[in-house]
Amino acid sequence: MKSHVRTLQIAFTYIGTIVGAGFATGQEILRFFTRYGHWALLTILFSAALFIWLGTKMMIIARKISADSYEDFNRHLFGAKAGTIISLFTMIILIGVNSIMLAGAGAIFKEHLGLPYQAGLLLTIIGSYLLLKRGISGILQINSLVVPLMLTLSLILVCNTLGVPGADRFLFLPTDHSGINAWISPLLYTSFNLGMAQAVLVPLARHTDDERALVRGGILGGAGIGFMLLAAHFAMSSQMPGILQFEIPMGSIAIRLGPVVQMIFLLLIFMEIFSTFVAGIYGVSVQLQQRLPIAPALVAPLLMLICYVFSQFGFSSLLGIFYPIFGALCLIWVVMLVRSPMSPPPGQGKPPAGGAGGKKQGITIVSIKPAIRPTRK
């Protein structure tokens, strides 16, 4: 029973980490899948297969090399020097993505609740600060609550769309984009999201003793992501092309479900944004706490302040500019993950860290040697 619970926690955390602002609001799905018309169904299935395969592989490797952070994992993939550079780049991307998450929260408050944009930002920041005090357990708990509700609502969305005129439009939706661009898009989308998810999935795998739970959680998580992609694409295809005008396209679809369901749906979108924002801040904070000569308690508030400044540019503008660029750069990371063997070479443990962890290991070795060195008479 404990193994099954852990499996579900891993699956829900995997889904919750991927299903962020762009996904939950529908912007990501429109940009990477739905706008490619009849190609979208096949590319979504392809993307789901990649999430199952590469997400599971990443967690298994992270557990076997005892990687405490995504920097340890990148050092394993690229080597010590290149891995450090990649990790710093990943940190910059995570800060940009978290700014997008924060902007998505503000967009929900402004567009659908009639409340000030800044209110959504401040509420997200305050709630995140309180939850971050609980560490990784807080992330597991909030995803275990929100993700099942999102999966249930996705199922309701599919059932409701079945009776809408044009429900079969997703099969033959016209597009002006080429098939090459349509098949590159899921590669970019999957690469970007897996590159970002490592900030949470790597330490999660490190603290999971049962490898079978990781495998089952990765499979369930990837399949769940695929289902939610299909459900959102199915619903939005029936509303094309008019749905392209909305900042929160999934929120506009929820309107036809009635005011009560709409409010529940908007609340869940906000909670998904909130949980992904917390996870991203947590992942970057863990790395920075080992590198910056400031109190650990100040790292997370400083990161959230930076995200608050960038979030003033707006949600859809940030999403449209940065996501494709980040996805292209994360393709390199995915290529290295594909090439990496599932099991590290014999004798290879945790990669040497340049921060506090590496120094601690060196002190331990020095202190043991005098005790075990034979004494000459």
UniProtKB/TrEMBL annotation:
Transmembrane segments: 12-30, 36-54, 85-109, 115-132, 144-163, 183-205, 217-236, 260-282, 294-315, 321-338
Keywords, ordered alphabetically: Membrane, Transmembrane, Transmembrane helix
Presence of the UniProt keyword Transmembrane in the record: yes
Region: Disordered, residue numbers: 346-377
PANTHER family for the chain: CONSERVED MEMBRANE PROTEIN, MEMBRANE PROTEIN
Protein name: Membrane protein YkvI
Source species of the chain: Paenibacillus rhizoplanae
